[in-house]
Amino acid sequence: MSSTSPRAWPWTASSSPEPYFESAWIQSLEEIHPITLQPIEKESLTLEELISWLAIQQFDGEQTTIEEWLDCNNFSSLTERTPFLLQGELANPYRLADLRISGMPIIPVRMDGIARVWTDVIDGREVSPGIHHVTLARTKGWWETTWLGFADKKQALTMTEWLNDGRGTNWRWSTVGEGSLSLTFDFLIQPPNLGDMEWDGEIESVSASPPPLSGPKLSWSDVKVILFTRQGCYDNRGKLARCAHIKQRQFHDDMFRRGSAKVWNNILDLV
Fold first, then answer.
1. What is the mean pLDDT of residues 182-188?
2. Hey, which of 64, 127, 141, 270 would disulfide with 206, CB 3.0 to 4.6 Å?
3. Which domains are present in the chain?
4. Are 139 and 72 contacting, i.e. CB atoms less than 8 angstroms apart?
5. Model confidence, pTM
6. What is the DSSP secondary-structure string of 158-197?
């Protein structure tokens, strides 16, 4: 994908947080730079190995590495950054530009056993009736891709403060204690569809077999996740409202009812 301006990236309340970029990338306030990721043949990576590998990845069609670009543009080095899971709108180039976040490398990752789900509240700051943000919840047998951003301290605080609307601590940094996380080089992998879901009256699970991993596993202990902790995720009569199965506007118009929530620390084990 060719470079483009993050301000020109499509964003509407009805489609938020999509669309996402189609590959790894890093953006300035003026331009999105696609990154070519070279597969790595290991079963797992430590944080140090992940940082070392990422530092030498290059921009599409160029010889410039990520670490060289960060240094030339006076951004924090990768060793000064923390990996943050970007499961929602914070992985949209337009939103990052709106928050004036630039110079944050973002790569695709795969989650197993954990799903992206809609929260049970509305953020009405910009549009009416507002948008719903994305948090996480366990689902046995589930898999899907999302994004990992390498944020410096200022960027991490900016993202968290924006989710909290500059006040309160409803969104907090957390460490996931279940499921698995891995690099993915299969950008076309699709999550389970609705027909793959089973429901026993209490718990949902996936009947289909997961596709093989395409990259090494990462440790959740090395990654921060910003989770909604005021209540949790939306409770659809005992089931989850997964972002992969129901999009923003359809969720709001056809499913959302105020006051229906699953408690945040009951839907996901945390460290």
1. 92
2. 141
3. 6-188+211-263 (3.10.490.10)
4. no
5. 0.94
6. HHHHHHTTTSS-SEEEE-B-SSEEEE---TT-----GGGE
